[in-house]
Amino acid sequence: MSEALANLLNETRQFPPPAELAAAANVTADAYGEAEADRLAFWERQAGRLSWAKQWDQVLDWSNPPFAKWFVGGQLNVAYNCLDRHVEAGRGDKVAIHWEGEPGDTRTITYAELHELTCQAANALTDLGVVAGDRVAIYLPMVPEAAVAMLACARIGATHSVVFGGFSAESLTNRIQDASAKVVITADGGYRRGKPSALKPTVDEAVANCPSVEHVLVVRRTGEEVAWSAKDHWWHETVEVASTAHTAEAFDAEHPLFILYTSGTTARPKGILHTSGGYLTQAAYTAHAVFDLKPESDVYWCTADIGWVTGHSYIVYGPLANGVTQVMYEGTPDTPHKGRFWEIVDKYQVTILYTAPTLIRTMMKWGEDIPAGFDLSSLRLLGSVGEPINPEAWMWYRQHVGRGELPIVDTWWQTETGSMMISPLPGVTAAKPGSAMTPLPGVVADVVDDQGQSVPNGGGGYLVLREPWPSMLRTIWGDDNRFIETYWSRFGAGASGNAEDPWIYFAGDGAKKDDDGHIWLLGRVDDVMLVSGHNISTTEVESALVSHPSVAEAAVVGATDPTTGQAIVAFAIPRGTTETGGEAGEQLIAELRNHVAKTLGPIAKPRQIMLVPELPKTRSGKIMRRLLRDVAENRSLGDVTTLQDSSVMELIASGMGGGKSDED
Ligand code: 6R9
């Protein structure tokens, strides 16, 4: 049988945790053994970190796979766990959110204030007729009201569906319709790139086609003129005048908490459904374990948008359940200057920073003198999420943000998994740059071949999860069949039809185990290239390119080729001041092709490399290789391998046409 995925990249650097962090770490190496000895007892102990109104009768009901129930019979209120219990414990004056608007305006919100705002919003939503089980769509910029709106829904048992503020009226319409949302919470707009960016007109357009929507709540942020209809209510005239008294009712552990739409490669977006008890248990535990959160002293900052799952689990639920102080930033990293992120770290004395590889590679492109201009000495831990982080980007992050000494946690997880699944533990793991290392305690991940057999160390294949986990998706909203089809039908019982076989979750990612058994993520399996009979991952070739000192970022795709089946075509963004014109560009391209051949072997040598100023990304920063594949295949590139301007990207942009709004 042929290899599932070639293993080309060999990385040997390894960085043990700083002694001081290890000595005081929230979670030690014992956690692995404890979880292995009794996985359900382990998760039961983590659930015990939350406040429950009623104790569960059973930790896991897996009698009807792949439909799981966690903490069966238990009852809790998610918002109570994120707010009330901290206030009741006397920590109401502690800052929950240091909010920084893009124009530089700020708000400081304590746990007591966040609690009051949430109670007001819960009362206002109730007055508008929202009851437990109803769906509420949230379409907001990165303002504190976004967190308040989510928590208010959780408080009254309404299911929120946050739609990223960059999505179009059509995408918003589809999502509102799919969930039959009763209320939409939005704003007049937000600030992006130094300008107000309107949201309300998009909502007006969507709501016109969404008969389920009875009310629209509008936060005033920019003060720009907005059209007004009978369904519209200003937040400040509704929420901010409501009573601050509200008693949180407990809901079943399996009560729906939120739907979050994630786009597959082609098909219509999937409404990923998460429920309450298991989700909060794992979001809270992983934030505690992987970020080593110390509520007394840490200032945590996750740069994600609240519209992505990262914002749900690691801005709202995980950090707030742990009672930590965090920073929330409205805008873009280069407004008004390219040092904005580092200025914020400096200003709020951020201790833990969680960001995306795309941001790190952008910072690499801008150059290391930008972070060097700020005091980053408050930082003690760095995190990464969203894509494989190339070893060189990892090294750059450690060197130029982490003073060459901070641990980096590369956290693999998905909208579907709800929380982190594979990641170093910062006080335990000697991390390797580019590897997510090992499954977290209580998580059973593996890499398998086409037949679902575990691959040996050194082998590559498909990433799977062998056992259910508390924050797993429960289904695709309204489409159980698609849930089974997409995630459970590739391997195990769902593939064989044999009830004796275990149910195995297929994540859709390629991965490999290195010689020590550590896991390396290799990108989506849809992106794998088949070159002369070898399955080559885009990630490894991209990492080889980024390991060249002149490259900040790279995207690689397989294009149809008459001799090799597919050939590797690469798009590379040069670093800082690299000379890319004329002969210098040609020379660099030749050098890069040889560099890849030398690093990974001749099989991985790109047929073509184009130097480009930008790459097409999804709204959450993932590279859109599908678009690049179109460019690589449909255009006769001839000898013109150097692109000095953005013509390739303009071509891509024009190809995107009216479909600009969605990531798929
Ligand atoms: C949290 C989030 C999920 C997909 C996932 C994988 C990629 C995320 C990663 C990573 C390598 C990491 N991904 N984290 N790949 N290393 N640390 O991003 O959720 O938006 O649903 O995307 O992102 O391909 O399958 P989501």
From TrEMBL:
Cellular component aspect of the GO annotation: cytosol
Enzyme class label: ligase
Q: Which UniProt keywords apply?
A: Acetylation, ATP-binding, Ligase, Magnesium, Metal-binding, Nucleotide-binding
* Protease is among the record's keywords: no
Question: Which positions bind Mg(2+)?
Answer: 546, 548, 551
PTM per Swiss-Prot/TrEMBL: Acetylated. Deacetylation by the SIR2-homolog deacetylase activates the enzyme.
Q: What are the GO BP annotations of this UniProt entry?
A: acetyl-CoA biosynthetic process from acetate
EC number(s) of the enzyme? 6.2.1.1
Residues annotated with N6-acetyllysine modification: 622
Q: Which reaction does it catalyse?
A: acetate + ATP + CoA = acetyl-CoA + AMP + diphosphate
According to the UniProt entry, its GO molecular function terms are: acetate-CoA ligase activity; AMP binding; ATP binding; metal ion binding
Q: Per the entry, which co-factors are needed? A: Mg(2+)
The residues listed in the UniProt record as binding ATP, with positions renumbered to this chain, are 386-388, 410-415, 509, 524
| Keyword Ribonucleoprotein carried by entry | no
**Binding residues for CoA:** 192-195, 310, 532
Provide the family line. Answer: Belongs to the ATP-dependent AMP-binding enzyme family.
NCBIfam families referenced in this protein's UniProt entry, alphabetically: Ac_CoA_lig_AcsA, PRK00174.1
Q: What does this protein do?
A: Catalyzes the conversion of acetate into acetyl-CoA (AcCoA), an essential intermediate at the junction of anabolic and catabolic pathways. AcsA undergoes a two-step reaction. In the first half reaction, AcsA combines acetate with ATP to form acetyl-adenylate (AcAMP) intermediate. In the second half reaction, it can then transfer the acetyl group from AcAMP to the sulfhydryl group of CoA, forming the product AcCoA.
Cross-referenced HAMAP family, in alphabetical order? Ac_CoA_synth (MF_01123)
The identity of this protein, by name, is: Acetyl-coenzyme A synthetase
Q: Which organism is it from?
A: Micromonospora endophytica
